Amino acid sequence: MTVAVRVIPCLDVDAGRVVKGVNFENLRDAGDPVELAAAYDAAGADELTFLDVSASSGDRATMYDVVARTAEQVFIPLTVGGGVRTPEDVDRLLRAGADKVGINTAAIARPEVIADIAERFGNQVLVLSADVAAGRDTASGWEVTTHGGQKRPTGLDAVEWCARAAELGAGEILLNSIDSDGMRQGFDLDLIAAVRAVVNVPLIASGGAGAAAHFPPAVDAGADAVLAASIFHFGDVAISEVKHELTAAGHPVR
Amino acid sequence: MTKPTVALFDYGSGNLRSAFRALERAGADVTLTSDLAAARAADGLFVPGVGAYAACMEGVLKSGVDAVVRERAASGAPVLGVCVGEQILFEEGVEHGVQTRGVGVLEGRVELLDAPRVPHMGWNTVAADQGMALFAGIDPSERFYFVHSYAAKAKPEGARVATAVHGEPFIAAVERGPISACQFHPEKSGDAGYALLTNWIKDL
């Protein structure tokens, strides 16, 4: 009778299409986010995340349509992030059918937006997405960066920032290690433990998964959920294998 | 055979698209409405709700659906409340020290969960009392999707309840006469949620 560790595939969506190769069998259209979402649901995903990478190019209407079609066909929780700046953006995504909304750069520029969104919609809808890299000039040794993989420094201590975001009203933290991302050497366990020590909201670990065996240590370090993209998309590791490893390590799964 | 009608009541709260489709998939003829006559006339009334208790109650009172819920409770017409739509069926909610009166068709108050991790977010198991219609045929090992920080903790008199544990035991679902309610989101709970909604709809 404890809440299960959530296993969350993340899809990058650009102008209504999934980007980065997806290698799934039996798909009519591997570029259709709705069909992929359904495939991941069938494969046992506990939740889905769409990252709108086209957000800044202004193609928002397409994303609302993708979210709406997904919500009508896939009956597990859906988080949408990318380009979210204001409570109005959140409102539109929730109305389209998102359950939670991720916010990143806009919250760094204006932390009060976290409180604005939490007050209006409840903190359970708001996922603070932190892209973290090693930073020599911060107390913890980790720094928040913006603009995804471009690692634009902010000077913000990543651990302090996560604690502050939770205080302001973020209901969940998506902790993405930019340095580990794509390396397939496992999650940054020290980073997970450091953030876990300062927040009591749920923590999603992201960045670095390369094998099913990489997932249980992230949970041992303090993650409540685990997120990955390419290893699932390429079919290298199945969600069922991750759940098998988690179960073997004594963690509850659905 | 005609399908049972369900009024999905829109008082300005959150994502209703999933609920609409999930109810439809589970066999209901669904109408999304903020019309009180439609809420009275439907075979089943679905009361959604996300966000803060006080904000939801404000929307409920403004819409006037509180009176319809009480009428239906008195006349034996089915109501299903989900998430904050479950919580507001109780007598009161306390969030951030603010007490808000609920619709009050179930006795008890909704309070902060005493747990190391809040919100309670994710898939959890529930232990249902014998004979609950919502859980008929659903394996006790099934998990449902929760996302909330507050919950009712005491069993209303004469009700059947399902309890879940997150830090402490709380009411995950409740049934008494025509009133049914779930703290979790059946419309987001995959096959288990589909089974539960089907159970509610087939009895309408």
UniProtKB/TrEMBL annotation, chain A:
InterPro entries: Aldolase_TIM, His_biosynth, HisF, IGPS_HisA/HisF, RibuloseP-bd_barrel. One of its GO terms (molecular function) is lyase activity. Keywords: Amino-acid biosynthesis, Cytoplasm, Histidine biosynthesis, Lyase. Pathway: Amino-acid biosynthesis; L-histidine biosynthesis; L-histidine from 5-phospho-alpha-D-ribose 1-diphosphate: step 5/9. It comes from the Bacteria. The active site is at residues 12, 131. Pfam families: His_biosynth. It is found in: Cytoplasm. This is Imidazole glycerol phosphate synthase subunit HisF. It comes from Glycomyces paridis. The gene is hisF.
UniProtKB/TrEMBL annotation, chain B:
NCBIfam families: IMP_synth_hisH. CDD domains: GATase1_IGP_Synthase. GO terms for biological process: L-histidine biosynthetic process. One of its GO terms (molecular function) is lyase activity. The active site is at 83 (nucleophile), 185, 187. Residues 8-199 form the Glutamine amidotransferase domain. It holds the Pfam family GATase. Heterodimer of HisH and HisF. GO terms for cellular component: cytoplasm. Gene3D superfamilies: 3.40.50.880. It comes from the Bacteria. It is found in: Cytoplasm. Keywords: Amino-acid biosynthesis, Cytoplasm, Glutamine amidotransferase, Histidine biosynthesis, Hydrolase, Lyase. It catalyses: L-glutamine + H2O = L-glutamate + NH4(+); 5-[(5-phospho-1-deoxy-D-ribulos-1-ylimino)methylamino]-1-(5-phospho-beta-D-ribosyl)imidazole-4-carboxamide + L-glutamine = D-erythro-1-(imidazol-4-yl)glycerol 3-phosphate + 5-amino-1-(5-phospho-beta-D-ribosyl)imidazole-4-carboxamide + L-glutamate + H(+). This is Imidazole glycerol phosphate synthase subunit HisH. Its EC number is 4.3.2.10, 3.5.1.2. IGPS catalyzes the conversion of PRFAR and glutamine to IGP, AICAR and glutamate. The HisH subunit catalyzes the hydrolysis of glutamine to glutamate and ammonia as part of the synthesis of IGP and AICAR. The resulting ammonia molecule is channeled to the active site of HisF. Pathway: Amino-acid biosynthesis; L-histidine biosynthesis; L-histidine from 5-phospho-alpha-D-ribose 1-diphosphate: step 5/9. Transmembrane segments: none annotated.
